[in-house]
Amino acid sequence: DTGVSQDPRHKITKRGQNVTFRCDPISEHNRLYWYRQTLGQGPEFLTYFQNEAQLEKSRLLSDRFSAERPKGSFSTLEIQRTEQGDSAMYLCACSRDNQPQHFGDGTRLSIL
Amino acid sequence: KQEVTQIPAALSVPEGENLVLNCSFTDSAIYNLQWFRQDPGKGLTSLLLIQSSQREQTSGRLNASLDKSSGRSTLYIAASQPGDSATYLCAVKNAGNMLTFGGGTRLMVKP
User: Residues A106, B22, B35, B12: what is their CA dihedral angle, to the nearest 10 degrees?
Assistant: First the structure.
């Protein structure tokens, strides 16, 4: 159990650029979750995968956001045409079935 | 729609004090409730998980209680230490797979 790994830890980009984050979950954890956390707030759910299938998406996930988990292992979250309001910490979590979720250290996105 | 509230938003106490953090939720049909700790710039570390059928869970100096019918949970920290300084987050799980989080309580324990 090497924990949840997220890359990069910090991303700084100009408004309008596209960004992609990666999450490597704990091996054999079939469920993977993405959350977004803004400063001083609790995390908010974005989307959930069971294996490679994306089963739930929050209304927060606008059409500029897309997430994939192509082989049921790692996942990517892409934001197109970034806006100031996208600045946040993006957290990945995983679980084995309905067991407690384990979180990574997140990717902090800063939009200039 | 589930809403989770944590009070107080911030708390500063001298070392050695016992303290209570509060969490309330609007929809009592929960599967479980979880307390997390978050250090600055870091992810979340799970502290305690209480199933809907349970009333409390204990781990070391931490004790979490759950009153599902009233929509409340408390996290009790005994004999607080400077190393306990962090943000404490409460999260509930309803039907579905997502967690709904409160805004957190930022705790500072002064030496």
Answer: 60
